[in-house]
Amino acid sequence: MTTMTPLKNDRFLRALRREPVDATPVWLMRQAGRYLPEYRATRKQAGSFLGMAKNPDVACEVTLQPLRRFELDAAILFSDILTIPDAMGLGLYFVEGEGPKFERTVRTAADADKLGVPDMETELRYVMDAVRVIRRELDGNVPLIGFSGSPWTLACYMVQGGGSKDFALIKAMALNDPATLHKLLSVNTDAVIAYLAAQRAAGAQALQVFDTWGGVLSPAMYREFSLPYLQRIARELDRGEGNERTRRDGEAGAHTPLILFGKGTAAYLEDLADTGADGVGVDWLIELGEAAQRTQGKVALQGNLDPATLYGSPDAIRREVRRALDSYRDGNGGSRDGHVFNLGHGMSPDMDPDHVAVLVDEVHAYSAR
Amino acid sequence: MTTMTPLKNDRFLRALRREPVDATPVWLMRQAGRYLPEYRATRKQAGSFLGMAKNPDVACEVTLQPLRRFELDAAILFSDILTIPDAMGLGLYFVEGEGPKFERTVRTAADADKLGVPDMETELRYVMDAVRVIRRELDGNVPLIGFSGSPWTLACYMVQGGGSKDFALIKAMALNDPATLHKLLSVNTDAVIAYLAAQRAAGAQALQVFDTWGGVLSPAMYREFSLPYLQRIARELDRGEGNERTRRDGEAGAHTPLILFGKGTAAYLEDLADTGADGVGVDWLIELGEAAQRTQGKVALQGNLDPATLYGSPDAIRREVRRALDSYRDGNGGSRDGHVFNLGHGMSPDMDPDHVAVLVDEVHAYSAR
CA-nearest residue of chain B to A166? Predict the structure, then answer.
C-alpha cells in the first residue's frame, strides 16, 4: 500500500457532486485505445488485448497514455467489461475483428446455477492490482474511475456467447424462461457490487456502470431486466461503503461517486436519476439540456457528444463542443455545475488524436469563460 | 392495364384512416423473406436477391408467398430500399453476409452534382412492372404497399458505400460540408417523391418511407438532415396526387395513405405526426400507448412488437401481442381504431413461420373480442 498524495485536479469529483468548478471537466470513453500510436505499440508488444488487461503494469501504462497527451480530468482503468463472467469460468477470448466471445455460455437454469460471485482478490486480483498501480502512478494528478458492465449487459454476452445484432437468445430467455434470466442477473448483480466495492477499496475514486445494451429492450423489458438491477447496485454499493469505510486514499468515509451510463436509455433518465447514483451518462440521442431539465438537478450528467464529431474538422468540433456545453447550461438553469463532458459512446480506432486535443481544450476554454 | 376488382379486405386502409375495423389489421416488415422455405427455393432458382427484385414475376411470387400462409391484411412490394441510388448509377451489389454495397459513392460536391432523378418508367420500370403484376395477382384480396428508403437513409448508403456501424463518413460530411449533404438529400427527396408517385400510379394502395437510420443522429442533426425531407415528401406527394389524379385503381382522386417509419426516432413522434402523413411506424423502444397519447389521434400508428418476440414460445407471443394491442387501446382513449399491428423492425431469416401464424391469428382474435 502506498500513501496517497492529495488530488491536484478535483474538477471531475466536484462536478459529480454538482459543486462549482473553474472549468467543466472532461474525459472520454475509450480514451485509452487504438487511436493512439503508443497504445498500438504497447499492444503489439503485449500480444493481445487480454494480455494487456491482465498485466497491471501494462494496464497502468495504457491508462496513463492519453493523460500524457491531453488535459483530461480523469483516468479510467484500462480493462474489459467482461472480466466478471471470465472470472466466473466462461472463458473470455477475442477474435480479431469480431469482438469478445465466450467459450461457455449460459442458456439453461442449470448453467445459471453453476455461477458464483468470483473472489475479487484472487480471481480478479489483476484488476485490483491494476487499480493500485495506477493510483500510485497517477500520483494524485487526476482521479481514477473504476468500472463494470451492467448485470443486463454482462448477461447479453453470457447468453449470446458474444456480441449480437438482435439479442435473439437472451430475449427468448426473457420471454420463455424469465426465472433463469433473473437468476443470472441476480448473481451478476452480486458480482458487480463486489467488484465495484473491491475497486473502490483498491483506490478507485469514482465508479461507472456501462449498460451498453440496455437500449435494445422494450420499456417493459428494460424495467424488468435492467433497471431493477441498476437500482440495487446504487443502493447496496452505497450501503456497503457506509458500513465498511475501507477506502485507502486518506479520505476514509468519503463517498465514492457512482455513474450509470446507458446507451439508448434516455427514455429512462428520470428513473436513473432516482436510483441514488451520483451521475448519469447519456448518449447523443437526446439534447443535454432536455436531459438536465428532466433530471432536475438530482444527478450530475455526463456526456454527450456524438463520437463521430471527432471525424469533423477542428472548427466543427469546437462548434459542437460549445453547443453541448450551452445546451447543458440552458437546461440546468443557467449553470454549468454538475456537467462532466464526455462523448455519448466510446472512441473508435480511426480517430485523430489531434482532434481529441481540440475537443478537450475547447471544453476547458469555453466553459471557463 | 388491368381492371381492378374491389378490395375484399380493407382493414389496413381503414385503420390508416382511423376508421373502425372488425379486427386490428396486421402485416410484418420483411414478411416476404428468408424465413420462408418457399422464399429460399425461389431465391435459389433466381440466383440472387437483386435478380429476384428486378424480375417482376419473381418479385410478385415472393410478395404473395406470406399471404398464402398467413391471414395478413396487406402485401408489401418485394424490392430493395436502394433501387433509387442504383438507378442513379451508383451500382448496387450484394456481398453474402455483408449487406448492400455501392460500386461508386458520393463524397464530394462534384459527386452530388452528377446525380439526377431517374426516369421511373424506364430506369425503374422493373419496380413499376412488379407493382402492376402484383396488383393483378392480388386480385383485390388485400391492399399493396409500395415503399422507398428515406432521403437520409439512402444518403447513408450512398456516402458510406454500404452499411455502417458509426456512419463516420456521412456524419463528417454533415459537420464539414453540410451544403453537399443537403444537395444530396434534396435530389434524393425529388427522386423519392417521383418514385412513390410512380408506384402509386402503377397501383400501390399505400406508401411507406423507411427512415431506417434516422435514429443514429443527434436531435439537432435529425432536425436538419432527416426530418425536413420527410416533411417535404408528405407535403409534395399529397399535392401531386391532388393535381394529377392519375391513379388507375378505379378510385381516381382517392387519397393514397403515406406511412413514415423510423427506427430509433420515437423522440420525434410529434413532429412526424405533424408532417401530414397518415401513419407513423414505431419501433419497440416506446410503449405504443405512450406513442398514441403523444400523437393525439393525428395519425394512425403502426407497430410495434420487438421482432425478437418471434423467438418466444407461442404463449409468450400471444401474451406480447395482447400487451401491445392493449397498450395502444389504453393510450388511444379506449379505442383500437387507428392501429396497424406490425413488428418494430423487419423479420430475420432464422424465425419460425409457425410463430408468425400464432402472431397474426392472435392479433385478429384478440382485437376482435
Answer: B308
* A80 is an active site residue: yes
> A139 is written with which cell numbers?
500520483
Is residue A283 less than 8 Å (CB to CB) from chain B?
Answer: no
Establish if A312 touches chain B: CB-CB under 8 angstroms.
Answer: yes
CA distance B166 to chain A (A): 7
Is the CB of residue B72 less than 8 Å from the CB of residue B43?
A: no
CA distance A6 to B110: 57
B35 catalytic? Reply is no
The tens digit of pLDDT for each residue in A322-351 reads: 999 999 999 999 999 999 999 999 999 999
CB A31 within 8 A of CB A24: no
By the CB < 8 Å criterion, does A287 face chain B? yes
From A308's Cα to the closest Cα of chain B, the distance in A is 6
Residue A251: pLDDT over 60: no
Band of pLDDT at residue A244, cut at 50, 70 and 90:
very low
Q: Which of B166, B264, B308 sits opposite A171 (nearest CB)?
A: B308
Q: Judge whether A267 is closer than 8 Å to chain B, CB to CB.
A: yes
Give alpha helix (H) positions in A296-352.
314-331
| Set of chain B residues whose Cβ sits within 8 Å of the Cβ of A313 | 175-176
From the list A340, A352, A338, the residue with the least C-alpha distance to A307 is A352
Place of cell 483498491: A202
Mutation target among A221, A225, A285 for the B interface, most CBs of B within 10 A? A285
What is the structure's pLDDT at A239?
Answer: 77
A219 residue type, one letter = P
Give residue-wise pLDDT tens across range B117-160.
Answer: 999 999 999 999 999 999 999 999 999 999 999 999 999 999 99
Classify the complex by whether its ipTM is higher than 0.85, answering yes or no. yes
Give the one of A172, A176, A308 whose C-beta lies nearest to B168's C-beta.
A308
The reported pLDDT for the residue numbered B254 is: 79
Q: Are A105 and A158 in contact (CB under 8 A)?
A: yes
Amino acid letter, residue A213: W
For chain B, what is the total number of helices (H) and then of strands (E)?
16, 9
Which residue is it, cell 476554454?
A365
The set of residues, in sequence order, having a beta carbon less than 8 Å from that of B179 and lying 6+ positions away, is B109
Distance from CA of B309 to the nearest CA of A (A): 7
Provide DSSP, B10-65: -HHHHHHTT---SS--B--TT-SSTTSHHHHHHHHHH-SHHHHHT-HHHHHHHHHH
Q: Strand, helix or coil at A144? A: strand
